[in-house]
Design goal:
There is one protein chain. The chain is 51% helix and 0% strand. The protein is mainly alpha-helical and 285 residues long. The longest helix is centred in the N-terminal third of the chain and has 26 residues. The two termini are 12 Å apart.
């Protein structure tokens, strides 16, 4: 009912769209920079499940960055507090976005991008750290990722259809691979289970896999070869597309801005007296 019937704004659509995308990308970049220092400690090193005998104590890492650009990273982050700290950060981001009146669809898209960044950073580090590749560490990481999933559900981020949690599937499947039984009869099941992982990532994790104790068998070369043969077609397709081992932490999803009409009634809108010159520019009809 209330719309600009006598104005053609088509010439400004592209400009407004570009500005909106620029603001969106600026917000996600600031959020990524804030979560980056504690990403690895919170998702890979935090031990939320007590009593796992296979988890050996490891020396504290001097830096906890996830993308290699971590000169400003704190020298010490307590793994016991890191996960709660990350969830607190996400909650603070969510409250700020809500208070600024962002549409739920846009908020979900922002967190879809942030969850992708968390997934990429944690998986890339896992692929480079042999000390993380055993079954008990897989259980710990899966527990940590489950806290992110539950947080997203608590904030109703999935209600808009943005599939925020699906962006975590690569790291989820990596933890499942660490926990899975690795005998030759399990090859088909493992290949089906890891459909969101690249072939090179699957093989890398298997080659890095370390038995947690002397009772667990090592991954045999024959098992790895069977996985490679089973996934040969997928591997050829990935090679054709020049797919890399590590996930691209700079990847951005396309953003879509929905149109949600304002519930403000223009006929009841009162213009403050301090804007004395405004009536010469705008006329109520």
């Amino acid at each position: 009912e209330h719309c600009l019937r006598n104005f053609d704004l088509s010439a400004y659509r592209r400009v407004l769209s570009d500005i909106a995308v620029w603001i969106y990308q600026g917000i996600t970049k600031v959020m990524e920079e804030e979560v980056q220092p504690g990403l690895v400690v919170a998702l890979l090193e935090h031990e939320g499940i007590g009593g796992l005998s296979g988890d050996k104590p490891r020396p504290m890492r001097g830096r906890a960055g996830s993308t290699g650009n971590d000169l400003d990273t704190p020298t010490h982050l307590d793994p016991k507090e890191a996960l709660d700290g990350l969830l607190t950060q996400l909650t603070r981001f969510h409250l700020v976005l809500q208070k600024h009146g962002l549409d739920p669809e846009i908020i979900s898209q922002i967190f879809r991008q942030i969850f992708y960044y968390l997934c990429a950073g944690s998986l890339n580090n896992l692929l480079l750290r042999k000390d993380m590749c055993h079954w008990s560490r897989g259980m710990q990481i899966r527990y940590n990722i489950a806290q992110l999933e539950q947080w997203a559900r608590d904030q109703n981020l999935e209600d808009t259809g943005s599939k925020v949690i699906d962006t975590l599937l690569p790291i989820i499947q990596a933890t499942q691979l660490l926990q899975a039984r690795k005998s030759e009869e399990d090859v088909p099941g493992i290949c089906d289970m890891c459909d969101k992982l690249r072939v090179s990532q699957i093989i890398k994790i298997l080659n890095l896999y370390t038995p947690a104790d002397e009772f667990e068998e090592r991954v045999s070369p024959a098992f790895v070869r069977k996985i490679q043969n089973k996934l040969q077609e997928r591997a050829m397709e990935e090679a054709k597309n020049q797919v890399t081992l590590l996930m691209d932490t700079k990847f951005s999803f396309a953003v879509r801005f929905p149109f949600n009409p304002s519930n403000i009634n223009f006929a009841e809108l009162e213009i403050p007296e301090m804007y004395n010159n405004l009536p010469t520019l705008v006329r109520k009809v």
